[in-house]
Amino acid sequence: MNARDEVLARIAAAHRAAPPPSLPYEDIAREYRTTADSSDAALTELLIDRLVDYRALVRQCSVDDLGATIAQALEERGAHTVVAPVGLDTSWTASPSADVLTDGLSVADQLGVITSCAVAIAETGTLILNGSAGQGRRVVTLIPDYHLCVVFADQIVPDVPQALGRLEATRPLTMISGPSATSDIELNRVEGVHGPRTLEVIIVGNERS
């Protein structure tokens, strides 16, 4: 018997000793939390806390100040060329602080990217993109070294069940929890292996200035 056969044999033996319940799908208990009463301010504060813990950069602004805030972020980052996915609000990139290129680019051209998002999970600090207008193809947010993501306050939900309730499972979902980071066997942190080394998030209040 090889290792694979041994593992499968142990699994089969465990099933015989304690078979899983044969409940119909609709009868499976779903006792996890599906609602929350946190205020918008509390959700925003929690999301910021999680993002900062992941070493993401965070800014806040009003709706009217979004264009100027994006321009300031790009200027401070030194991002002279960025990608704007198809459908991104053109007013966000009206400032001349950077050359804004279209979605259809080669890998070498993609130095930074600006996107919107579908939903943000406060408890886990996760941004979810679903490939819709303003969010682009998955490759657009995985190849650049810098990702600037705009999140509106009403897109922030408390936790995973509420987020899934807003999403279509058939869309290409990309879940982003901070900049790309991994650790080797000696726990040395390495950034930028699987995506952008720098994630910057602008959280936009729903009020106008």
What this model shows, in words?
The chain has about 210 residues and is an alpha/beta fold. It contains 5 helices and 12 strands. It has helices at about 5-15, 40-55, 65-75, 140, 160-165, and strands spanning about 55-60, 80-85, 100, 110-115, 120, 125-130, 145-150, 155, 175, 180-185, 190, 200-205. The strands form 4 sheets. It has a 4-stranded parallel β-sheet with strand order 1-12-7-4, with helices on both faces. It has a 4-stranded mixed β-sheet with strand order 8-5-6-9. Strand 10 and strand 11 form a beta hairpin. The chain is globular and about 65 Å long. It starts with a helix and ends in a 5-residue tail after the last strand. The model has no long low-confidence stretch (mean pLDDT about 85).
Could you list some keywords that capture this structure?
22% strand; four-stranded parallel β-sheet; 209 residues; 12 strands; globular; alpha/beta; four-stranded mixed β-sheet; 5 helices; 25% helix
